[in-house]
Amino acid sequence: MKKQKLVVSIIGLLLCAFFSLQQPVYAFGPESAIIYSGIDVSGWQENIDYAAVKEAGIEIVYIKASQGSNFVDPYFERNYTEAKANNLKVGFYHYVTARTTEEAVVEANFFASVIGGKTPDARLAMDFESFGNLNREEINAIALTFLRTVESLTKKEMVVYSNTNDATNIFYGEVTTYPLWVAQYEVEQPTPNGNWDTWIGWQYTDEGRVNGIENHVDRDRFTQQILLTDTTTLPPVEKPTNPTSPSGTTSIIIQRGDTLSQIAKDYQTTVAELVRLNNIANPNLIYAGERLIVPQNTSINSNGSERIYIVKKGDTLSKIANQYHTSVVAIAQYNGIRNVNRIYIGQRIKIPTAVQEKDMSHTIYEVRRGDTLWSISRRYGVSIASIVRKNRIMNPNLIYIGERLRIG
To answer: For 360-408, which CATH superfamily applies?
Structure first.
C-alpha cells in the first residue's frame, strides 16, 4: 500500500511539473487593479467639448504637445485649458522624429519648452514609433537620450508609448526600465512582449467614440501608476535653437503622399541634395510626420501654373491670401485644406498663378452668395467655358463665396 501511495505521489508531482511547463513563464497585465478610463488627443480631433467628455466618464486625457524640434500641436493650448477647466487629469506626449542623439536632446528641450509652466497630472510620454533607416541600437540610444533629457529638464517621471511589435522587437535595455503605455487593438488584453512584465497604460482602440468628440479618438485604460507623484507646475525652459538645419535651410513636416521627387520640385532642388542634407539611405522611403531639411525659401516659383509658399510663424491663410490678392476659400480649395484655421509652420501652400496678383488685363470678380458661373458669364458677356479655362476650374458646378475669378 505504501508503495502504491509513493507511486501515486510521484506521478502527481510529475504531472504538476508537466502542466506548469505548459504555462507562460511570465505574465503581462496591468501594474495595479485600479483602472482609469482615458483618451489621447491631438489636433485631429479639433474642437472638443470637454464637459461632455467628462460626463461620458473619461478621467484622464493625454494631449499631444509637440513633434520634432519645431512643431506645436495647434490645439495644444486649448486642449490643456479646457481639460483642466473640466477637472480632467492631464498628461502630455511628444512625437519623436530625431535621427541622432544630438537631435534627441534638441527635441527634449523643445518638448520641455512647450509644456513649461503647465501643471500635468500624469507622466510625460515619449511617442517614438517612426524609425526610418535607424538600426535597433540607434533607436534605443535616441529613445534613452530623449527620456533622460526630459526627466532632467522637468523633474517629472516618464512613460514609454509603444505598440506591441516595437515593445517586443525594437526596445530593450535601459529603455525598458521605464514603464510602458502599450498600443494593441482588437484583443481582450495586451499580449506579452518579453521586455515589460506589466503595463500602466493600454491604448485599446484608435476608433473610439466619446461624447463631445466628433471624430474617432484613441481610447485608453490607465493604472494609478500613470499619475505623477509630484504634480507641481513644470519649470519654464527656453526654446532651443535648432542646430540640425544647416545655414540656408529650414525644416518641414512630411505629409502623407509626399515623395522626395515632388518635394525637390516644390523647393527647386534635387533629390540628391535632399538625400545629402538629410542623410537618407533610401530615397524611396520617407515617412509622414517626419522632419525634412529643405532649402530655405518662403516663396518659390514652382512652375508656370502655381507658386509654392512655405508657411512661417505667424502666418494665417487670410494673411497669405491678402499677400497674393486671392481669397482664403480659393487657397483652401486648391490645396484641399479642410480647416482654414489650421496650417502649420513649414507647410507647403500651392498658389495658382491665376490668383497670384491682380492682372491688369482682366477683370477680377469675387464670388458672392447666389452666384453661378452662368450668372457671372451673363453679367460680363463671356462664355462659361472662358471662365473655366482662365481660372482652371475643375468642376463648373462648384464655386465658392469669396473665390476670385478672372473674367474676360
So the answer is: LysM domain (3.10.350.10)
Write the CB contacts of 5 (distance below 8 Å, at least 6 apart in sequence). Answer: none
**What does the pLDDT read at residue 403?**
74
In three-state secondary structure terms, 319 is: helix
Q: Give the position of cell 489636433.
A: 43
Q: What is the set of active-site residues?
A: 40, 129
Domain-by-domain residue ranges, the chain?
Answer: 29-226, 360-408
Residue (of 149, 198, 150, 143) closest to 174 by Cα position: 143
CA separation for the pair 246, 249 (Å, rounded): 6
**Residue 350 pairs with which residues in a beta bridge?**
308
Task: Supply the pLDDT for residue 356.
Answer: 37
Find the farthest-apart pair of alpha carbons in the chain and give their distance in angstroms, rounded.
116
Domain 29-226 identical in fold to domain 360-408:
no
**C-alpha distances out from residue 18 to 14, 15, 21, 210, 315, Å:** 6, 5, 5, 47, 69
Q: What pLDDT does residue 279 have?
A: 73
pLDDT of residue 21: 45
pLDDT-flagged residues of the chain (< 50): 1-3, 5, 7-8, 17-26, 243-244, 298-299, 301-305, 354-361
- Classified by CATH at the fold level, domain 29-226 comes out as TIM Barrel (3.20.20)
pLDDT of residue 138: 95
